[in-house]
Request: fold
Amino acid sequence: MIEVQSSIEVLLPGMKRKIGFLISILAIVGLILGGVKLVGSGSPKQGMLKVASSPTASVFLDNKHIGRTPVETKVDAGSFIIRLVPETTTQTLASWQGNIIISPDILTYVSATLAESEFAIAVDTLSLEKITSKFAEVAVTTNPDGATVALDGGTKGISPLSIPNITAGDHTLTITSLGFLARSLKIKTTAGYKLNAIVKLALSGETPQEASPSSPAKQDLAPQGTPTKAAGAATDPAKPFVTIKDTPDVRKNNGLNVRMEPSKNATVAAQVQPGEKFSIEDEKTGWYQIKYDAKSLGWISGQYATKTE
Reply:
């Protein structure tokens, strides 16, 4: 009994030291884990969302109601589905839905003109993006694509496109497309930032095929030398030639895009209409090269054209 007791008395101080060491280690681990938890639980970064519409509409983000237009609120950074539901009892208007990205400490601005049909709704979505250039930049995306983009009255090209090396300040961005209402936006650019403009164009309500020949506005919009469906061609062009198909996709886009190269990603040079016929200048797999006016060549997708030999 005495020997056992002596052994315990000898071992006890060593055990105390080991237990104290383990407690210290656990305390340090606990502090580290606690610090990580505090860092991870910080408030998410937010951006500012501003929404305006005509007429007044309820605004939903990922099906969560955030208010009635005009709305200006902070939103956690991320990608969202935004939906505008008109609040009017005098007429039946269509709702609009689209995707937006909220960036930290950046204002995203959505402006919509609602209408009875989704195709007649016009929406502008503007946001800024940090870039390395000391100048400003404007990037334009349109729905449909292939719209003519002008900045301060000077044509810059066909959408989608980016306009680099712009001086900071106030500018006027104008978007036009055959068969759609023109959009003119007053924008303010900032040095070191790219202004992203996503523009949904509204159908004019009168397609080019329905336009009266005496309507100068409609006639001016048609590419020079391009025959219109209203005018019609007296005779077929030289064989082989293609006839533009009348498909839902072509009608939705208000025409078939003519591109600079035989690729769906190539720049859009013009549009041709269903029923129009063009001689084939060259062919590549799935594409036809046509002369869409007296001097210009371009490529159209064979998916939307019928070949006659």
Residues 2-40 form the longest helix (39 residues). The mean pLDDT is 77.
